[in-house]
Write a structure and sequence with these properties.
Blueprint (H helix, E strand, L loop, with lengths): L1 E5 L7 E4 L9 E11 L1 H8 L2 H6 L4 E2 L3 E9 L11 E4 L2 E2 L5 H4 L10 E2 L11 E5 L3 E3 L6 H4 L2 H11 L9 E4 L3 H13 L4 E5 L2 H10 L3 E4 L5 H7 L6 E6 L4 H10 E9 L11 H6 L3 E4 L7 H11 L8 E6 L3 H10 L4 E5 L2
Parallel strand pairs: 11-12, 11-14, 12-13, 14-15, 15-16, 17-18
Antiparallel strand pairs: 1-2, 1-4, 3-5, 3-9, 3-18, 5-6, 6-10, 7-8
The structure holds nicotinamide-adenine-dinucleotide (NAD) and zinc ion (ZN).
Nicotinamide-adenine-dinucleotide binds next to helix 6, strand 12 and helix 9.
Keywords: Cytoplasm, Metal-binding, NAD, Oxidoreductase, Zinc
Pfam families: ADH_N, ADH_zinc_N
Family: Belongs to the zinc-containing alcohol dehydrogenase family.
Length: 341
């Protein structure tokens, strides 16, 4: 089969011929239809410090996918051949306290396909049947292929009650933009999205009615005045990983405000804890998606009018992957979807 492999401990990826994965009794085999390129894949492409520490070589990468089941292991009862699925790319253990309490997403032994284990940028992918998510007719393959990042957006946005609240989202990457759409769908009042990249903010304007602010030249205070927000944002969703964005967020929060942190800073950063303490802020870290509440809620929202399709800006054949990665590097794209048909 074709597979996009991190073949060398150096920049880039290689399309190679690899054996189809062998499934075990609890696994399913999926013929991959579409995959999304993630920021994580770009880190792996670039072979940055994080990738060098994390990624085994050689390995098939990729973790955002949708496809059709072509084989199931002998123990599998919940999935059958022909089912159209996406899936949770975090594989968990069942030994920890949190996993045994049913909080699967908090298992410390979590391993990621395409990061620690062979991934989805291939004609065929193996995952445990436990991780499969059935796709209803309203969710086609290209939306199925971006449920992983949509799930990050949903998990973060649903961390706190948003109804009637004013929300600040820092970072208009695909996840920040999708989070803005989710906030609107569930009933937030003002939604303000910041970035320093005009392409991304323009894309956000096409997907949502959130107010967009380029903080490299506009003052967030002015925007808050215009919206008649006297006290500050009730909820903050940090989706840039930029320390400056977090600082700005803490500064603009209401007393007792709540912040959910998804963005990953490139290293340790300093925080003015005095401001966090004296504003009585609540800060919650977010990793991945809740298994499987996030999946349930996001599919329900897609079935009831949540529309994130415009966040997919580029569609291309799997063989043109290098072009997709070049776009990601420039930041002049939303989601890039590869077609394995
Ligand atoms: P992305 O890199 O495409 O988007 C981040 C955006 O932040 C970019 O558009 C960038 O221009 C913007 N930005 C940079 N500095 C800024 C500033 N000072 N103020 C406002 N915006 C600024 O990333 P994405 O794919 O949308 O993902 C969002 C973040 O979430 C990334 O940091 C990613 O690594 C992280 N992530 C975390 C998890 C998790 O499980 N915690 C999962 C997926 C992604
Ligand atoms: Zn991803």
């Amino acid at each position: 089969m074709r597979a996009l492999v991190k073949a060398e401990r150096a920049e880039g990826l290689e399309m190679r011929d690899e054996p189809v994965p062998q499934i075990g009794p609890d696994d399913i085999l999926i013929k991959v239809a579409k995959t999304g390129i993630c920021g994580t894949d770009l880190h792996i492409w670039k072979w940055d410090e994080w990738a060098q520490k994390t990624i085994p070589v050689p390995m098939v990468v990729g973790h955002e996918f949708a496809g059709v089941v072509t084989d199931v292991g002998s123990h599998v009862r919940t999935v059958k051949v022909g089912d159209r699925v996406s899936g949770e790319g975090h594989l968990i253990g069942m030994k920890s306290r949190m996993a045994r309490a049913g909080h699967f997403h908090l298992d410390p032994e979590t391993k990621g396909i395409g990061v620690n284990l062979p991934g989805a940028f291939a004609d065929y992918l193996k995952i445990p049947a436990f991780n499969a998510i059935h796709l209803p007719p309203e969710v086609d393959d290209e939306i199925g292929a971006i449920l992983d990042p949509l799930g990050n957006a949903v998990h973060t946005a649903l961390s706190f009650d948003l109804v009637g609240e004013d929300v600040l989202i820092t970072g208009a990457g695909p996840i920040g933009i999708m989070a803005a759409a989710v906030c609107r769908h569930v009933g937030a009042r003002h939604i303000v999205v910041t970035d320093i990249n005009d392409y991304r903010l323009e894309l956000c304007n096409q997907v949502t009615d959130a107010v967009t602010v380029n903080v490299s030249r506009e003052d967030l205070h002015d925007v808050m005045h215009r919206l008649r927000m006297s006290e500050g944002f009730d909820i903050g969703l940090e989706m840039s990983g930029a320390p400056k964005a977090f600082d700005q967020m803490v500064d603009r929060m209401i007393m007792g405000g709540k912040i959910a942190m998804l963005g990953i800073p490139s290293g340790p950063t300093t925080v003015d804890w005095n401001r966090v303490i004296f504003k009585s802020l609540t800060i919650k870290g977010i990793y991945g998606r809740e298994m499987f509440e996030t999946w349930y809620k996001m599919i329900a929202m897609l079935q009831s009018g949540l529309d994130v399709r415009k966040v997919i800006t580029h569609r291309m054949k799997a063989g043109d992957y290098a072009q997709g990665f070049a776009l990601m590097k420039q930041g002049s794209c939303g989601k890039v979807v590869l077609d394995w048909g």
